[in-house]
Amino acid sequence: MKLLLKTSFRIKLKKNIKNFIYHCEKIHKYLEHFKTDDLCSNIKCCHYINYFLNNIISISNYKDKDNTFRLFKSYIENNKNINTNICVNVIQKIDDNVLKEIRELYKLYDDYEKIIEDDELIINKSLFCNTLKEFVTKFNNVVGKLDLSNSNYLFNKLKNLKCLIEKNDLFTSDKCDSNLLEFTAPKVNNNSIYIFYTLKCNFVIHLNKELF
């Protein structure tokens, strides 16, 4: 029995080490890409790295998740081949509830991309409108559950998705019933945040940090 337990432990440990190395390599590739992407000149891309880290640790079998997070952060801080100073202060633990909400928001992004990239869907009006209806329903369900008071990142990702939708002709055309595109605004206690969210994207330049 003891032998079986030891064998099981060794297999699990070996798998965790292998996963850790794999994820470090993936982080390295992300950081390499950030150096060449002009859109990553600020900390926006660092927030994704932070989400990525928190998410993989959350869904993994790492026994000591806090220590694993510290090891990943140390890897980023001490990676001599890449200047990662810009991301150091962004890498931090995300509350489990906020992480769950961010995960749902990223699924919405995936659904959005599937809609705009499906040529067959776009030319089939009936199928397109039904798919769009499902997307709007899912969007409103997710937004209705979000707590934006604890996460600037979550708010900005939601606002960005809303802007993508507003600026895409597929979502503003007369293909479908106009009532279909009634997007729910998030419930927030701060009127300034609510106003910023509901403004049309063409009139929004940036979000003042003092709103939070």
Indicate the topology.
Blueprint: H1 2-36, H2 44-59, H3 65-77, H4 85-88, H5 96-117, H6 119-123, H7 125-145, H8 152-167, H9 169-172, H10 191-198
Protein name: CYIR protein
Radius of gyration: 21 Å
Q: Roughly what percent helix? A: 55-70%
Q: What is the global morphology?
A: globular
Count of helical segments?
Answer: 10
Total domains, how many?
2
Query: Strand pairing plus helix content: what structural class?
Result: mainly alpha
- Poorly predicted regions: 1-9, 203-212
Proportion of residues in β-strands: under 5%
Terminus-to-terminus distance: 56 Å
Mean pLDDT: 75
Secondary-structure element pattern, one letter each = HHHHHHHHHH
| Main pleated sheet | none
Using DSSP, what is the number of strands? 0
Offer a few descriptive terms.
single chain, 212 residues, mainly alpha, 10 helices, 0% strand, globular, disordered N terminus, disordered C terminus
Give a verbal description of the structure.
There is one protein chain. The chain is mainly α. It has two domains: 87 residues, no CATH class; 116 residues. 68% of the residues lie in helices and 0% in strands. The chain is built from ten helices and no strands. α2 packs antiparallel against α3, α2 crosses α5 and α5 packs parallel to α8. The longest helix has 35 residues. The relative contact order is 0.08. This is CYIR protein. It comes from Plasmodium cynomolgi (strain B).
Q: Short summary of the structure?
A:
The chain is an all-alpha fold and 212 residues long. It has helices at 2-36, 44-59, 65-77, 85-88, 96-117, 119-123, 125-145, 152-167, 169-172, 191-198. The protein folds into 2 domains: 2-88, no CATH class; 96-211.
